[in-house]
Amino acid sequence: MKIRFRCDPALLGHIPAPVPARAALPDWLRAMPATAASELHGGPVRTVKQCPPFVDAMAHGFVIPLPCDVRVAGGRLSWDWDLPAPSLPAHPRSPLSFHAPAQVEGSPFHRADRAIVKFNSFWTVELPPGWSLFATHPANREDLPFRLLTGLVDADRFTAVGILFPAQWKDPGFAGVLPRGTPVAQCFPVPREPLDLDVGALDPAGAEAYGATAHALLSTPGTYRRRHRARRGRSGALEAPAQGAEIEP
Q1: Which of 38-52, 152-166, 193-207 has the lowest mean pLDDT?
Q2: Number of structural domains, the chain?
């Protein structure tokens, strides 16, 4: 599927482009061990690094990267970004803004000590007809100090401006730098056609296949990867350089 991204002409080459999620896998995933000791099992067990569904979820779709370094200190978010002036009216200049806490009152995201920040997007997204864009927190990225609010956008019709990504700032004590390129949203196209749910009992052939597959999964490590996992293509990432402002979350 071709996904079309466009930005303000004055900013092309000054902002990082969306990248395939596979190109933005975190360093901790690469560094973590493939096996670990388990007292419960009395020996080594495979870690999630060897779990294809865990890794494939993190590598699925594309990610929207943070366009510049954002410093976090004393409850303040700040940045120093030498961004050219956008040529389009009402175009954002800051990498993020915020929502009023009342906008999530009554939901699990409402906490007096946690801000709702909004990651501004500098890219429009256009999908083929009939497809929507599912945008969510980067999969399995509990290391990030925010939690993106999941949304679904009809990005075959809403294509003229960028999509904004709200998130709960979940770690008030975080201090440091969110580096340029940090994934702020993981996105993938989903079809808008209605679901047709067919629910029933396994027939004899299905029951036999269940038993054989369950036995293979329990007795032979790597069965899913070798027999059932679809082959995935690989793609690369893009890069580019980085105004001064600050807000209080």
Answers
A1: 38-52
A2: 1
**Contact yes or no for 152/190 (Cβ under 8 A):** yes
Say which residues have a Cβ less than 8 Å from residue 191's Cβ, sequence separation at least 6. 130, 131, 132
DSSP 8-state assignment for residue 34? S
Domain presence at residue 132 = yes
Q: Residue 123: which CATH number?
A: 2.70.40
Helices (H), 198-237: 204-219, 223
CB contact at 8 A, 231 and 225: no
Q: How far apart are CA 218 and CA 227, in angstroms?
A: 14
Do the domain assignments include residue 125? yes
Taking alpha carbons only, the member of 96, 79, 2, 108 closest to residue 243 is 79
- Rounded distance, CA 116 to CA 108, Å? 12
**225: pLDDT strictly greater than 60:** yes
* DSSP classification of residue 113: T
Residues spanned by the domain of 166 = 1-18+64-88+119-193+236-249
Give residue 249's pLDDT band: very low, low, confident or very high (50, 70, 90). Answer: very low
pLDDT tens track for 83-101: 999 999 999 999 999 988 8
Domain-embedded: residue 159:
yes
The greatest distance separating any two alpha carbons of the chain, rounded to the nearest whole angstrom, comes to 67
What pLDDT score does 95 carry? 95
Total Cβ atoms within 10 A of residue 193: 8
Torsion, Cα of 63, 67, 68, 72 (10° steps): -60
Residue 218 lies in a domain: no
Q: Which 8-state DSSP code applies to residue 16?
A: P
